[in-house]
Design goal:
This protein is 84% helix and 0% strand. It has 2 helices and no strands.
Length: 98
C-alpha cells in the first residue's frame, strides 16, 4: 500500500516537473518569436488548424481513458477469478500451492 502511494507521488512529482519545465521553456521562447503578420488567410487557416488539433487531442484523450478503463475491468475480473480458483482449490485439497 505504501509502495503504491510513493509511486503515485513520484508520478505526480514527475508530471509537475514536466509541466513547470514546459511553462518555463514557453516563457523563455516567447520574446524570441517574431511578431505575427496580419494576414487574413493565414489567421483563418491557423484558427482552423488549431480547432482540428484540439478535436484530435480530445479524441485521443477519450480513447486513452477508454482503454485504461477496459484494462482496469480486465484486472478486476482476473483477480476475482484467481480468488475463486484459490478458494475452490483450497476447499478440495485443503491447501493452496505457493
Amino acid at each position: 500500500m505504501y509502495q503504491q502511494a510513493s509511486r503515485r507521488e513520484e508520478r505526480v512529482h514527475i508530471k509537475n516537473t514536466f509541466i513547470a519545465a514546459a511553462l518555463a521553456a514557453t516563457m523563455a521562447a516567447g520574446p524570441l518569436a517574431s511578431p505575427a503578420l496580419a494576414d487574413g488567410k493565414a489567421s483563418t487557416r491557423n484558427i482552423i488548424l488549431g480547432g482540428a488539433a484540439a478535436v484530435a487531442g480530445g479524441v485521443l484523450v477519450l480513447n486513452y481513458n477508454h482503454k485504461k478503463r477496459l484494462k482496469r475491468e480486465e484486472d478486476a475480473t482476473r483477480a476475482r477469478r484467481q480468488a475463486a480458483y484459490r478458494q475452490r482449490f483450497y476447499r478440495i485439497h485443503g491447501y493452496y500451492p505457493q
